[in-house]
Design goal:
This protein is mostly helical and 155 residues long. It is 72% helix and 4% strand. A hairpin with a 7-residue loop joins β1 and β2 (152-154). The longest helix is centred in the C-terminal third of the chain and has 43 residues, at 98-140.
């Protein structure tokens, strides 16, 4: 829900979000304008996918990349001494508390990475259990013939 919420604020006022992106002084205008239009909808889409629990791995991977980029952008602005509004949750006009934002973003990133890793291992476990079940089904096709104890025959 966090990403749907954040994306909705940005999508509601793309011109303000564009101003927030430009205040970072990292992108040329045409890329900043494209991000202001499309990034909120990507956040909303990925956040919605996490809520309905479909295609979760891809959504978590995309959001992990975005959170990494957001964190790098905030660190860059902080290191350059910029006094900006981060544009994160529609908090326009408020000045950035860099230490809090970095800690928050790193915490969200860590959670996303843990979820991505968990989803990856979950898929591996399911894949391995399906392989094992397939092997057991193949073995079940062989039954011992009556009267013998060691020679399997096909049914």
């Amino acid at each position: 829900g966090v990403f749907v919420y954040a994306g909705a604020f940005k999508a509601a006022d793309p011109s303000q979000f564009l101003a927030d992106i430009e205040s970072y002084r990292l992108l040329p205008y045409h890329l900043a304008a494209a991000m202001a239009l499309y990034l909120p909808w990507l956040e909303i889409l990925c956040g919605g996918v996490l809520i309905v629990k479909r295609l979760r791995f891809g959504a978590m991977a995309i959001l992990s990349i975005l959170m990494g980029l957001f964190t790098l952008a905030i660190l860059s602005a902080w290191m350059r001494g910029l006094d900006i509004s981060c544009g994160c949750f529609g908090n326009h006009g408020r000045r950035t508390n860099y230490p809090w934002l970095v800690i928050r973003d790193l915490a969200i990133l860590a959670i996303l990475i843990a979820l991505v890793i968990g989803e990856y291992w979950k898929s591996k476990i399911i894949q391995n259990s399906e392989h094992l079940l397939s092997w057991e089904r193949r073995q079940a096709k062989f039954v011992f013939a009556e009267g013998t104890t060691d020679q399997p025959t096909k049914r």
